[in-house]
Amino acid sequence: MNKREINEIKKQFTPEHCTITRICGCYVDSDKDKKTELAQTFLMLTEEENFKYFNIFKNTLSGSIGKNLLNMEFPIEQEREGGTQEFLLRLKSSKLEDETLLEQFYDKVIESYEYPENYYIILIYAAYDVPGKTTDGMENEDASEYVYDYILCSICPVKLTEAGLCYNEKHNSIESRIRDWLVLPPAHGFLFPAFNDRNTDIHGLLYYTKNSEMMQENFIDHTLGCGAPLSYKAQQETFQDIIENSLGDQCDFDTVKTIHENLNEYYEVRKDAEEPPELDKMEIKKLLSDSGVKETALESFDTTYDSIVTDEECPKFTAATVASTRSFDIKMPDVVIKVKPERTDLVETRMIDGRQYILIEVNDSVEVNGINVKNVDVETGEIIE
Predict the structure, then answer these.
(1) DSSP at 324
(2) pTM for the whole thing?
């Protein structure tokens, strides 16, 4: 799913466009016991409750694609009878009205979801009458061709509110605040089936994680059956290993800087595309070639890459994840230099008296601990304007 398709589903989480017909939930305590369950028509909730649930559902479809929102596909075996995809299809087809299926789903989540505290599992079923589009891309409500029905799962931590004092308006007094259990924004969730090309794709789902380094691999593997992808940090580290080991002796400052510049350019040109830009094995090799990497390193690239990426299916690296679009960082044991990624031209290396230095051109004002300092000619002692 791309940004446009995700936003199209998120737009339904308002009173005017709501297509949710049923909501179910299960509150689980820290001992993995079910404390209470909910199952009812969504529109029977109060208006205030509706708005709060809408915010949870919107959060479950928020964040960056490739970091917080991950497109996943089911292996063929999971689409057979007894597989995770086949179970989710039955759950969706029941419109969340089959109590046995709901209990089985809750049990699967509780068994695989690793969280030591209380949490709230929320499931909704919705049927979206997808409007057609005119030749100029405008939606046409009267030209709807099919209904996309789906389930959305949100898993929300539940925390005890902080102890403290509060003002009691009724008694006009300051007193101890009553502590209660508060449902927080979702930490994980998923949309099934995927809404690809504005159509139902039962072979995939969209997974959400608030923290890209807390993927819930066990939940993904056993409840969803999709296989956990590389996390945000793991993508960065794997990509860096590929570059460093591929370059070998050529992994010098100037070459790495050129790769950084070309990678950022690759991302900038494609960042507004509907599909998030990605790099596969061949595109990484082309990136190295375009950055002036020597032929000897390119000849050994395939072997180096395969020794680092051992999965049978070669992953694609999200360009937004592996590109340093916010800063160009130079780190040494005692010094850290951060440069705007588009101004790497200000930094160069130079040999002086047999020692290598990193030089930064001074062409504007300089601050030291917030104090504006003057640029002084070291030979004459005169201030450089």
Answers:
(1) -
(2) 0.80
